[in-house]
Amino acid sequence: MKVDGSCHCGKITFEAEIDPDTVTICHCTDCQKLTGTAFRVSVPAISGTLQFLASTPKTYVKMADSGNERVQGFCADCGSPIYSTSPGPNPSRYGLRVGCLAQRDQLVPNQQVWLRSALSWLPDMQCGTSFDRESH
After folding, report:
1. Quick check: is 113 in a domain?
2. Which of 2, 32, 104, 133 is the most exposed place for a label (fewest CB within 10 A)?
3. CA-to-CA distance for 136 and 116, rounded, in angstroms?
């Protein structure tokens, strides 16, 4: 499925191909802090399809709850999170933030990860598969 998106202020625009069956809710504490809410919804871009059409995100590297380094891409002007990926040149996988995609209403989560960090007041969100930690 082809998707397109932008940051909140519109400075960064992009497009990519995704598999809509791979949308994931993450409850890790990093995602809670980075979104300022209870969880994050992401979908991986198919390798080689992410293209920035206007401007490019600013990045920084964060050690994830999993122990892996994660590059966080965001708009330097409005702060909108755009993606996460692995450090190094030419990463093969970008986790796009569903909230910045124009097609977000069509992207129903199929999996939840890091349920052990889920906030106790959240309702039970039935997603195909759930994991206490990462799925891979």
Report:
1. yes
2. 2
3. 16
Report the distance separating Cα 93 and Cα 44, nearest Å: 7
> Does some domain include residue 136?
no
- Residue 42 pLDDT: 97
Q: Is the backbone of residue 83 left (phi > 0), alpha (psi -120 to 50) or beta?
A: beta
Extract the tokens encoding 74: 């965001």
What pTM was computed for the model? 0.87
Q: Which two tokens stand for residue 86?
A: 């692995």
